[in-house]
Amino acid sequence: MPIKCDTHLHTQLSVHAVGTVQDLALAAKNQGLEAIVVTDHCSLQMCHFEQSVDVLLAQQLPRFIEGVRIFKGAEIDIVDYKGHLCFYNIPYDAEQSALDRLLENLEVAIASPHYPPEDRQGSYEEVTEMFLRLIAHPKVTILGHPERIGTDYDMTAVALAAAQNGTFLECNNVSLQRNYRDKIKKMLQLCKLFGTYIVVGSDSHDPQYVGRFSEAYQLLHEVDFPEELIANRTRAAFEKALARQKQSKAAKK
User: Residue 120 — pLDDT band, cuts 50, 70, 90?
Assistant: First the structure.
């Protein structure tokens, strides 16, 4: 089954990425996609601009380009083992942090490990608790490439909590091109067991890789992953999954 929505894409606003939103949309159209999520980095290290929140807030995205639905998103760094996200402690105004201001303006928020947390030497328990807090966060849509945290964690607890909170776990195609296949396979098997929704993202930093999911397709087939648990299989399925997630998280407050 071809996946029609790519939920993890970067533009030239992100470090080591090239291309504009228009370039991504045209590439998506050529790949037969129905939708994309633009998720430039909200980060101190992964953005060309020190105050990446301001840059992302100023990013003007049309709802459609060439018939492709454009969702406004961001990939936000996890900065410590307490589950804080980048800019959580930077004021935007007298009432909000910069992070809160950004989150209220996004359709999709990916929380991902990159350089932080700290020295990447968190314990099994610390990393597990960190992921559980992020999964329960009312504004976190997707837990991005958790396999890259560099420490083992209770994957069973994480997959179960994601199912209970409606948070999507990411099957990241770039991670599958690296040395993370076994970890992602285990995650998919647990998601299948618990009925946890996933998204498949190309993590493209270049328009030529938009909608490129070949490694993900192979693994999804290998584990016989249920099509109905792939939240971004079509634009309509993704919109429905986002609405369902919003309701689930609101009920948890």
Answer: low
